[in-house]
Specification:
Length: about 375
């Protein structure tokens, strides 16, 4: 029978899902240690797009007011020609409910700082620049050794350590991310006058060109192309290369292009696909977020799916049920079908573009966005 003593959880990874899970567990009085291998707590990146169902979780975590203040919410999506001509503007489904924006753009470092402050305020014990190793586990606990030589014993370990999770591999889950054949250039930029929603262009020099407002003064811009060998693109050329690709786009892209001058601000990343199936736990170690699944940002739902993981797992861990295989299996069963439809659709949209096929994107995504209005 499970002990009635205070529960203690180790969260490995201080990204979006790990931070939010920590806050939700601390609110329920659970002791949480959070370890993050990066000494700067991963405060970096250009921008992030949060759909309404992601905002719903952030509201549950108590940070919505700050997110709303520092982000840029909107309810429409524009489609433009390569020359900047607006072809169509449509309403976006409010997947978080009618009292939240359909979508909110945000500078990723700003969101991370808001979540860091929430973790600190929660009373969680945080260790930065710290690696972990699962030493042993039994039916009631997990022993973890840290990179500073100390050890800790926990009732549950949550692997929120990202796409290339070392914890996932360490517990015997062999799934690895697979490149989809596409890659994305991202950069922050000043917000051109009149940009008050995301606009996407399909075609031109790249598969997709787009931008999203992230505050009253900023946006982040993206260009999606067929993936290239990263070794052939020196990082010091990133700004020049993104400007070159952007030359094929008009309208506000002319202003955006002129602002792309610092290669350190430009990020180049391949699209990956991952979906761990069967279960997301081994014993008392369980996966959340990108450690369990990831998808191309063609539907901008990766962060939402990771945040939903944290919310559902926190619900199950705080409802009074034993922390056993049955509870962790319920977590997986509540998440897998919902995550699978998002991963598969996000990959399909990219594959249509790679194959030069005009797929029915609205027909594919419409039912999914409607389904995401339901609570996870």
């Amino acid at each position: 029978m499970e002990s009635k003593k205070a529960k203690k959880v180790l969260v490995i990874g201080g990204g979006t899902s790990g931070n939010v899970l920590t806050v939700l567990l601390r609110r329920a009085g659970i002791d949480v240690d959070l370890v993050e291998i990066k000494p700067d707590w991963n405060v970096r990146g250009s921008g992030i797009t949060l759909q309404g169902n992601a905002l719903r979780v952030l509201r549950e975590a108590g940070v919505w007011d700050e997110v709303r203040e520092h982000g840029f919410g909107y309810d429409t999506l524009g489609m433009t020609a390569p020359d900047g001509t607006v072809l169509h503007v449509g309403e976006v489904v409010r997947t978080g409910g009618d009292d939240l924006p359909a979508t909110l753009g945000m500078q990723r470092p700003v969101l991370q700082r808001i979540l860091i402050d929430a973790v600190r305020a929660s009373g969680a014990h945080v260790r930065l620049g710290t690696g972990t190793e699962i030493v042993t586990q039994d039916d009631t606990s997990v022993t973890v050794r840290f990179s500073d030589g100390t050890e800790g014993r926990y009732d549950l370990v949550v692997a929120a350590d990202g796409l290339n999770s070392t914890t996932r591999a360490a517990i015997g889950i062999d799934d690895k991310p697979e490149p989809t054949g596409m890659a994305i250039w991202r950069t922050p930029a000043p917000r051109p006058a009149g940009v008050d929603r995301s606009d996407l262009t399909f075609g031109g020099p790249c598969f997709i060109a787009g931008y999203t407002p992230t505050s009253e003064n900023t946006i982040y811009a993206i260009l999606v192309e067929r993936s290239r060998d990263r070794a052939t693109i020196p990082p010091e050329t990133y700004a020049r290369e993104m400007r070159r690709l952007a030359e094929g786009y008009g309208g506000v892209w002319e202003e955006i292009r002129e602002s792309i001058t610092d290669p350190a601000q430009v990020n180049y990343t391949w699209f990956d696909r991952l979906l761990v199936t069967g279960s997301w736990h081994r014993g008392r170690v369980v996966l959340v977020g990108d450690a369990a699944h990831c998808c191309p940002p063609t539907m901008a739902l990766g962060a939402a799916m990771a945040l939903e993981d944290a919310w559902v797992l926190a619900q199950l861990l705080t409802e009074g049920s034993p922390w056993d295989t049955q509870t962790l299996t319920r977590y997986y069963e509540r998440r897998i079908d919902r995550v699978r439809m998002v991963v598969d659709a996000s990959v399909q949209i990219g594959q249509w573009q790679l194959d030069g096929v005009r797929g029915d994107v609205p027909g594919l995504t419409g039912p999914i966005m409607a389904a995401l209005k339901e609570l996870p």
